[in-house]
Amino acid sequence: MTKLTKLLVLALAVVALLAAGCAGDDDGDAFKIGVVTDTGKVDDKSFNQSAWEGAQQAAAALGVEADYIETEEAKDYENNIGLFVEDGANVIITVGFGLGDATIAAAQANPDIFFIGVDQFQGEALPNLAGLIFPEDQSGFLAGALAGMLTETNIVGAVLGTDLVPPVVAFKEGWEHGARYTNSAVETISTYHPGGLDVAFGDPDWGAATARQALDQGADIIFGAGGATGNGALIEIASQEGAYCVGVDTDQWNTVPEAQPCLVTSAMKLITPGVADLIAQAESGDFAGGNYLGEVGLAPFHDFDDIVTDDMRATLDDVLAGLNAGEIDTGWPLG
After folding, report:
1. pLDDT above 60 (res 8)
2. CA dist., res. 252 & res. 231, Å (int)
3. Which uninterrupted H or E stretch holds 158?
4. pTM: predicted TM-score of the whole model, two decimal places
5. 294 with 269: CB under 8 angstroms?
6. Pick from 89, 97, 134: which is nearest to 115 by CA?
7. Residue 94: CA atoms inside 13 Å, Cβ hemisphere, count?
């Protein structure tokens, strides 16, 4: 090899190293988004999935990537958050009430990282932690009001995740009070999963069996509010001719197509846009700690549009107006 050739090879090697170093700097400076799910899994077609879709939506808008860690057991909350801290995440979304304490501790220990706690009410505001919360009682009330008008047996049911999670209780109380608001003769059958946070939202077999029990007791419209557990209920109800079901968190017509034969609507928490908006605020420097109130509403009626009469729609409009004005008691908070 001539001296000139050696010099050219050396020069090319230096250029390659410099390019690699620049690329490394770009990767290091990239805005990183991490999602830690609760034990219901990222593809639960409900709660965790909605948060993950919000992270993906924000990542696409910002031209960056998002990643997630699925929590297997509640004892892993702190460690899973820590993995994203070590990876240099700029914003970490933790999904569910159960991760609340671990999220607060991580936010206190890492003031330069933004945290979004979905369904995590913040008693004391931290500048780098936003709790994305929703008036689940209002969403449940609207769905219950529709159920009270649709039921022919005057019996409505609910298959629910654990009562250890306040938003689940809020959904249940709103559902029952809404049904009685439009139908004073209605009876309610509501059942919480008996297990803890590790299992309550990931038990579709229990959800199906519990929905079947409610159907056998005369319920003809049932609310499934409990991640994969609730999805099991919806799919079971879909096998019962003449029965209606109501989904939760997102428009489950799209996420649980097996439930379409019974799915008249879903009691939605607009988690996806809430997460996406808070990530955008974190990236732009407009992030504010404390509580961030997301929006709720009913999903479209899809194939059941014809059975929801004009009078029913007018009643739902009046109910929504009353809820917004604070004139209707949803039964939540308890006591």
Report:
1. no
2. 9
3. strand 155-160
4. 0.84
5. yes
6. 89
7. 32
